[in-house]
Design a protein that fits this description.
Blueprint: H1 3-13, H2 20-23, H3 27-42, E1 46-55, E2 58-65, E3 81-82, H4 87-100, E4 122-123, E5 126-127, H5 130-134, H6 161-170, H7 185-199, H8 203-215, H9 253-256, E6 259-260, H10 262-273, H11 281-286, E7 301-303, E8 310-317, E9 320-327, E10 332-340, H12 345-352
Antiparallel strand pairs: 1-2, 1-10, 3-6, 4-5, 7-8, 8-9, 9-10
């Protein structure tokens, strides 16, 4: 039995005896969160919400709702949800891992990994680096200006390598690279594409080899295997109608393509907190180093309100919302997953520190 498996047994056995303080700052905080989740599900804003909390004493999972409307099956720790842009945390871990292995450098310009025919954008003679992509300081926009999907309801499915090359060769930056935070899906996707190309593997295989297999994340995937398909939560739109989930071309895979479960994400956040014995800890800690000018690390956003420091990232695709976060000082992590179009980040932040208000 490996060390991670032992950890999972320990935290599973301790679910019924975690102290109130280990769940949140106050028992009333968590009770209020459960009431809030029940309300948004009963009001039709979501079909289901599931949260997982982990600290030094173990974990607790709470869920409410159904995987599919009209079905009695409830979500549990093995239910799959789209995690959207939380995928970027996996991409940034891959970057950190490849840097630590000496395979590339944070300050490598992106032009180093692209064909000579691509004229990557510059500003005042400076090139975009891998670090700029990982910290959303590249100056690239949220989406490329030549994104023209065949199906507008599936916007990232068919964006090609040639389109990306054309976009990069023609895009004009408007300010100094590295100076300003501007969230960019094309930047995150480009980073994942470059890392996959460098490794000689497709993005999903690279994530599996470098992250999932070492940590025992058995349900973190892009392509859902047949044995997990019945565990997938159905996505719903604002009108409460079931919809098809987004798919992602290789250009955008590193920006938002992964699906995962509470159980897998609890391991992921526990590894970031050093709550499990893994030789990946130093790489996770590398991703926590703050940008010198902005409240972001390698993928992780940083909140410093109320005299505390919380790390986190939200995710959003059509029909799914997600949040993962942790507080290193209090050694607590939280994951919130939902098959909804309503925001869940406020739930996660409120659990980490009750002074963050729930979105009403």
């Amino acid at each position: 039995m490996n060390k991670i498996s032992k950890y999972l047994i320990v935290i599973t056995l301790s679910m019924c005896c975690i102290s109130n303080k280990s769940i949140a700052q106050e028992d009333t905080t968590f009770s209020y969160v459960k009431e809030y989740i029940k309300r948004i599900v009963d009001n039709g804003k979501s079909s289901s919400v599931i949260i997982g909390i982990v600290n030094e004493n173990g974990k607790q999972i709470y869920s409410y709702g159904k995987l599919k409307k009209g079905d009695d099956k409830q979500p549990d720790g093995n239910t799959l949800y789209g995690i959207g842009s939380i995928t970027k945390l996996f991409t940034c871990f891959l970057l950190a891992d490849m840097v630590k292995r000496g395979e590339l450098n944070l300050d490598d310009p992106i032009s180093k990994f692209l064909p000579d025919i691509v004229k990557t954008p510059t500003f005042n003679g400076k090139e975009i680096t891998l670090y700029d992509l990982a910290t959303h300081t590249s100056g690239l926009p949220p989406r490329p200006n030549n994104l023209s999907p065949a199906n507008p309801d599936n916007p990232y499915a068919d964006y090609t390598v040639e389109q990306m090359y054309n976009f990069l060769s023609n895009y004009k930056l408007t300010h100094d690279i590295g100076s300003k935070y501007e969230y960019s899906n094309i930047g995150g996707g480009l980073l994942g594409y470059i890392l996959a190309q460098k490794s000689g593997l497709d993005y999903e295989t690279l994530v599996r080899k470098r992250i999932c297999e070492p940590l025992g994340l058995n349900s973190t995937v892009i392509t859902i295997p047949s044995n997990l398909q019945l565990n997938m939560a159905t996505p719903y739109n604002n009108e409460g109608q079931s919809i098809s989930e987004w798919t992602f071309s290789p250009i955008f895979a590193g920006a938002g393509s992964l699906k995962s479960t509470i159980n897998d994400m609890l391991i992921f956040v526990a590894a970031n907190l050093g709550l499990i014995d893994t030789n990946l800890l130093s790489t996770f800690e590398f991703t926590h180093v703050k940008h010198p000018k902005n409240n972001i690390a390698l993928g992780w956003h940083i909140w410093n309100e109320f005299g505390t420091t919380n790390y986190g990232h939200s995710g959003s695709t059509v029909g799914y919302k997600s949040f993962v976060g942790f507080n290193k000082g209090n050694k607590i992590g939280v994951i919130v997953l939902s098959n909804t179009t309503d925001a869940v980040m406020s739930i996660g932040l409120h659990i980490l520190d009750h002074r963050y208000k729930l979105q009403e």
